[in-house]
Amino acid sequence: AGEMQDSEGNFLGYYNNQTDNYWQNYYQLHYAREFSKNLNLTASAFYTRGYGYYENYKNDKSFSSFGMSDTIIGDDTISRSNMITQKWLDNHFYGFNFSMIYNPSKLKLTVGGGWNRYDGDHYGKVVWAQVARLGDHDRNWYSNNGLKTETNIFVKAEYSFNANITAFADLQYRHIDYSIVGTHDDLRDLTQEHIFDFINPKIGLAYKLNNRNSLFLSAAISNREPNRTTYRDADPGIEIKPEKLTDIELGYNFKTPKLAITANVFHMKYKDQLVLTGKINDVGDAIMQNVANSHRTGIELIGGWMITDYLKWDANVTYSINKIKDFTAYVDDWNTWPEQKLENYEETDISFSPGLIANSNISLMPFRNFSISFLSTYVGKQYIDNTSNDDRSIDAYFVNNMRFNYSLNTNFVKQIDFVLTLNNIFGEKYETNAWVYRYYYDDVEYEMNGYFPQAGFNFMLGMNISF
Fold it and tell me: CA 125, 131, 132: angle at the middle one, nearest 5?
């Protein structure tokens, strides 16, 4: 609940309707047809309707920040007031996808594509003010629309030279037309349009050494457009570019009836990767920026071991080196604004990119339809900006959970699952996210930051019904 204050800053209590209200309805239509043994078609159409708002109490806000004029009462000119605001999202997302698979003996060919459109209105209302103004009832203080249309088509081919060697290749084309029209909540004009044409290829080779061992190698290039939030929160004058990734992977699989292990070495080289800056906007969303040259290189291990018929262990661990080359950090100077101080780094760590992540799941099935799982997660240290400074980092943490699942088969529904989850059973005190704002004043560096602590021990009881 938000704190309420009077005009002198005295605490008046808590506003108990600071809520988030959002609804979504999903509609889907699926079609499948088998023309022959080697040729089949699948297609789907969808429509998602979403709308809702969240409500906030605002202390001592100026009328001008909401596009309003000051209020005159008698001889007094009132320029500020406590307010209650609602920020609305009203969107439609619809489109279709299809794929046709041709699969003779050695060749599997897939041709597909799709079209979709997102049409979203964003607007805000002042639903109450301590000093009410005539004519401002039910007026939007800001309103903007985001319209994004995407068309894509792809071809996938997989060819088996023999029982041991298989090659594959993918090629995708994407066309995106994205526009924003209107103003943001700080009354900035957000109007802009971006058009992208991406070609994303991938090739690979799989080699089966024997029934237990196999190798695979792949190389891919993919492109991704920035999202609405990135465009909206970009600093004025900063060009936001799409990301381009070149990914090379080499892997090894080992499999027996009771043990499976996969090792995967990867090198992901980025051009204009969008990384977190450590700053957040006025509603807590992270702000992103492009970095010209960066990479993520590492190894991933995945394993599963059926110890007995009643006991299974699944685990994975990833070690990676995540670096930015030739990075420049811009730090505000309150004495010379808008001029900023520059910090140059020949190489630095990518923010919010832990070098070590590990997960474990030990599952016990003492009797039919009942399982007990012990889940553990370790996440290494993360920097909260791109300066590799230990004073601006999130400590490593190790969290353990337990899950109990009982499945019940009935005559009226397919299955009912009763699930009890006990989270953070050892009461680990940890944070998973943070923000930081650095600035200089009179040539002295200051910083403001915030960390997001996670819950101690907590539990959740649920029921899943399958029809």
Answer: 55
Nearest to 65 by CA among 202, 194, 187: 187
* The pLDDT value given to residue 344: 92
CA distance 209 to 304: 20
* pLDDT surpasses 90 at 350: yes
Element (H, E) at 69: none
Residue appearing with tokens 């690979």: 204
Residue 313 CB contacts under 8 Å (≥ 6 apart), including other chains: 303, 304, 305, 307, 360, 361, 362, 363
Q: CA 204 → CA 23, 113, 174, 250, 413, distances in Å?
A: 42, 21, 21, 10, 43
DSSP, residue by residue, 363-420: EEEEETTEEEEEEEEEE--EESSTT--TTSEE--EEEEEEEEEEEE--SSSSEEEEEE
- Assign 9 a pLDDT band (cuts: 50, 70, 90): low
Higher pLDDT, 233 or 367: 367
Q: Which residues partner with 432 through β-bridges?
A: none
pTM listed for this prediction:
0.84
Greatest alpha-carbon pair distance for the chain in Å reads 92
CB 80 within 8 A of CB 23: no
Joined tokens for residue 310: 């009643």
> How far is 169 from 159, CA to CA, in rounded Å?
9
> pLDDT tens-digit profile of 163-189?
999 999 999 999 999 999 999 999 999
For 327: left if phi > 0, alpha if psi spans -120 to 50, otherwise beta; the answer is: beta
Strands 431-441 and 311-333: parallel
Is the preceding omega at residue 338 within 30 degrees of 0, hence cis?
yes
Query: What are the CA-CA distances from residue 282 to residues 98, 168, 185 (Å)?
Result: 40, 46, 9
Report the DSSP beta bridge partners of residue 189. Answer: 183
Give residue 78's Cα distance to chain centre.
42
Both structure tokens of 105: 């003996």
Question: What sign does the CA torsion over 9, 13, 16, 20 have?
Answer: positive
Q: Which residue has the tokens 């070098």?
A: 355
Nearest CA to 360 among 395, 402, 322, 321?
402
How far apart CA 381 and CA 394 sit, in angstroms, is 6
